[in-house]
Structures are given as structure tokens and as C-alpha cells.
Amino acid sequence: xxxxxxxxxxxxxxxxxxxxxxxxxxxxxxxxxxxxxxxxxxxxxxxxxxxxxxxxxxxxxxxxxxxxxxxxxxxxxxxxxxxxxxxxxxxxxxxxxxxxxxxxxxxxxxxxxxxxxxxxxxxxxxxxxxxxxxxxxxxxxxxxxxxxxxxxxxxxxxxxxxxxxxxxxxxxxx
Length: 174
What we know:
about 0% helix, three-stranded antiparallel β-sheet, 1 helix, about 40% strand, about 170 residues
């Protein structure tokens, strides 16, 4: 699905819509079933230009339900704590390796476990042999923390570590 909006958020007026868009085919409305696999989403919205919350979003809770951060992206929190989410516009004064126009800012306090995840739907054939790569651009304010990327099937079974635990510091890292 390809959407052109009069602005930078899902709340902005829809100008043009192409259903079942397939890159390099010249258009949409081509059934995805003609491909070798059916896919609802593949690393969609990687720079968080679309978010599913009014920025800023704040929550103080114990073991809350998953929070839909953006289409297809969810934040899972375990334990007790507070979280504030912001969609941050980036500019040339905040140079980052991918030249992303937007960033997702998570301000966390407390929590025993924090997971930001994206759900891929109907992609079993693609991931069956674990041919997956990952690229993350991140930075944080404060004490360096480790992040990792994992592939987990729909039954919750870990299939592999896509990005080994990597330390994120106050500098943009890719």
C-alpha cells in the first residue's frame, strides 16, 4: 500500500492511494499472490515517519498491554515504570548515518524488559531458512545500553539472533 498524504502524519488528508503497490512494476492493484510469497509488511516505516500516537505519548503502568508505536511496530514493556514516546524530526544539525528525516524517541524509567518489535505477516517461506539481515541506527542519552535484534516465530519460538548484542552510546551508531 502506498499512501500520499498532505503532510507528514497519518492524520493528514489522504491525497492519493495505490493499493497492492509492487515496486518496479509501474503501479498497483497487482495481486500480491502472484509473487512467491504473500507479505503484508516488510520492514515498513523504518524511519518512523508515521506513528500511531499523539506525540508526546506518556504512560506510567505495571505490565501494560503492547503499545502500537507505528503501523506494524509495537513496544512491549514488562515490570513497572514510565515511558514517553516522541516522534522527533531530524535535520542537518543532527546528522545521522542514514540521513533519516524522523526518529522515534523512547524515554524509559523502570521496566524489567523493553522490546520494540515489528510483526511480519505471512512471510514464513521467506524466513524459513533464516535469511534475514538487520540495520539499526540508534543513540541514547545516558549510560550505554546493549540492544539486539532477534527473529521469533508467531508461536514465540526464537529462530535466531539477527543482530548480536551491541552497545549503543550517545553518538549515532549504525
